[in-house]
Design brief:
The structure is a single chain. The chain is α/β, with parallel strands linked by helices and 906 residues long. The protein folds into six domains: 7-111, Beta-Lactamase, CATH 3.30.450.20; 131-232, PAS domain (Beta-Lactamase), CATH 3.30.450.20; 321-482, Histidine kinase-like ATPase, C-terminal domain (Heat Shock Protein 90, 2-Layer Sandwich), CATH 3.30.565.10; 502-617, 3-Layer(aba) Sandwich (Rossmann fold), CATH 3.40.50.2300; 643-774, 3-Layer(aba) Sandwich (Rossmann fold); 803-905, Four Helix Bundle (Hemerythrin (Met), subunit A). Helix content is 46%, strand content 19%. A hairpin with a 4-residue loop joins strand 6 and strand 7 (144-147). The chain binds adenosine-5'-diphosphate. The site of adenosine-5'-diphosphate (ADP) has 22 residues, from helix 12, helix 14 and helix 15.
Amino acid sequence: MPDLPFSAHAAVFEHTRDGVLVLDRAHRIVDVNRAAENVFGERSVLLGMAVEQVLPGWLPPTLDADGGIPRETVLVWPPTGSLRVLSVPQRDASGQVGGWALMLRDLVGSLEAEATLRHQKEFSEAVIRNSPVAIVTISREFRVLSWNPAAERLFGFTPQEALGRNILHLVANVEPIRPVAEQTSREVLQLDRVHSVTQRVRKDGSVVDVELLALPVAVGGQPVGFIAIYHDITDLQRARQAAEAANQAKSLFLATMSHEIRTPMNAIIGMAGLLLDTALTPEQRDFVTTIRQSGDALLSLLNDMLDFSKIEAGRVELESNPFDLRQCVESVLDLLAVRASEKGLDLGYHVAAATPSLLEGDAARLRQVLLNLVGNAVKFTERGGVVLSVDVLRAPVEPGDPFELRFTVQDTGLGIPENRRAGLFQPFNQLDASVSRRFGGTGLGLAISKRLVEMMGGRIWVESEGIAGRGSTFHFLLPARAAPQASLGGPRLEQPVLRGRRVLVVDDNAINRKLLNRQLVSWGMEPVEAGSGAEALARLESGGPFDLAILDHRMPLLDGPTLAGIIRGQEAVRELPLLLLTSFDQRDAQPPGLFFSVLSRPVKSSQLYDAVMKCLSHDTSPSMPAPSPPRATREGSIFGERPAAISSLRILLVEDNPTNQKLALLVLDRLGYRADVAVNGRAALQSLEQRVYDVVFMDVQMPEMDGLETTRRVRRDVPAAVQPHIIAMTANAMAADRRECLDAGMDDFLSKPIRVEELIAALRRVQPRLEVAPVTAAPVIPRIEGLDPAALTRLWHSLDGQVERMLPELIDTALHSMPKLLDDARAALARGQSDDLGRAAHTLKSNAAYFGVTGLESVCHDVERSADAGVLDGLAERMEQCQGELLTARRLLESLRESVAARATG
Ligand code: ADP
């Protein structure tokens, strides 16, 4: 090795990463390099110091005989734990050890690593200490290991109080928080991260809403505990609740406001309607028509405001009905014609010849969009005119495909500058304040239009050069299906649709068959009865064509859905429309596609009527007579119809608002009806207690007791025999509101403002029920010990004054079929077939219930329940009881028959 110059030695000594201490013979420090200085302090202090003071425990190593090889030793050294020291003896010229050079290995590296660690630890501790969220570390035994100041602030425990305590005892010590917290802890110990919004308890016992993030901590794969981070979300929760409350208040405000405005609107539109039916000069007629139409427009504007909030909330449902496109377009122009002519504008329209005249869709929504676009065009145009045109952009390729229609509204007005076009369809966007001050408007119209067009599957845009006088053109495209020509007109009015139609009635219960039969005959239909699935199939095969089949659900061997499946599989009758009558709880359990409609028992005759009507108006078989055209026109008097001539209904009008009352009474009066008035729900209940009414017109929104609650009470409290037909009258025309009325037990629904045509139609729908036998004086029902009087009342009512004719026949049927049912039940029990047993017992039970034979009913009920549960033990004994009850039933029914016969002859 070549000798290094001294300066090089000095540089190596000075800058090597090992610390070097040079000792004299007495082990005092005589020199240090820079690395050692960094660790032990300044050179001036170190020089002359005994090495003991900086490296306690260092001893000179014993040297080999030749003394040549330096020794590395390991010292305990607190700052890093240990220190490797290479001790190199310094020999003088005589070879004696005259001192030592101690090379302190890795001194800086380990010190640096230690410093980094310490730094990191301090950093994390600072983060945890200063964190605004509570951070707690917890052992596997749920002991608190660390507790930061935010935890102290959140829960109120100091670290001294918290450390070492069980976290569940500390902050989750009440029901029902504790079990949830235990579950969380268990999950996190299984090394799952848990994130939840939950509650914990403070030191003072108060409960706090927290968002909790719990993370497992594992060292070397071994779970050692977990970290829980609690975020106080009290304020967030409060803000959310406040926002919800505000939102509710807003909806309520909108609903109330719309109700308040609709009430006078109702009067304006309704009175204008009445006025139109008096002798008027053409000019007067025109004025009144405008009042009526403007009322309509105002109402739809009101709807716009409601709509926007509903659309925003995603709560708008589109309707789909046939409508006349030209009529829709014309009605928009009619409404704006006055304004246009005041401004001297030409207002024109053009509907391309290829456009289908009847469309399937939501006419009101389309009208709303057109009204807005044409309204704007008229508003923002001073000279020239506005043209609305409709053309077919794409005709359907396959039949049944939609048309693509283009609607264009072109004006010669102010135009819209390029830079303002982008935000035009945003809500509350008006081009400039001076314009909107001059022209008025809410800035909602285009936003609503855009949303509606998009909901209908189309898109909308605007073109404009932005030059005053050159105007703007709004376009929108809509997919639209053509509706069949015959689809307009009230389908429910045409009862002839039912005349002569053949219905197959399939029910194993003879009484049910009779009742259905009678009902169908009263509508002019021709029912054919089948007592079982097999018989039904035979009739379908050989009994000539049927228009409809009504199937009972629960029948032995072939139940309704199975029978339906078989019918669907047979070529000749595959298309036959099927209705299923089922118990309420099985209503939703039907396989889809088999039935045109599923009705739950007991079926109201109005429901059955509607279902049958719908079913048969739907089918377009040639045997169906064409529906008659809509009868009412604005020119001729709609009152000419006078359905009052058909029967004299006793009507109760429940309405709190005097104007609405007056209007409805006037309309009814013109139709030849007189009605009593109840001013609220309570008064209505009183009236119904005192008198029998056939029809109740029920306002829905009323103070004190609303129409829904009143209806529920009527349905609950009024005897079945005198239940009225209830027609809701409400300003809320949405589908959901309709559902709510029907669910409350109403039979029908009219939206306000009430239109005479609709009122007449509703009254007509009452007729089928009453036409059979106008209800006369309340019938006198015999009392027979052992027969339930309520059931008899129901029975009398259901037979609508035909008791003398029908009841003996029904009793005979029952006396004939009930013993057979008991035999069936016995046989099923003997075979151990609980299904068949349950069915027979069920039918026997409903037969008994029909006549109010409570003894038999209750035994059969027990048998049915046991059979349904598959428990056949002890039923033999029950059968004996049944037999006894059946004998009693025979006696009771015979005396019922006698009492009816006596009355008929007496
Ligand atoms: P409103 O008309 O109630 O203010 P809209 O959403 O219907 O609200 O229209 C927003 C704005 O768009 C209007 O205020 C007007 O500035 C501009 N605008 C709409 N239609 C036209 C048009 N045909 N010509 C010129 N400007 C129009």
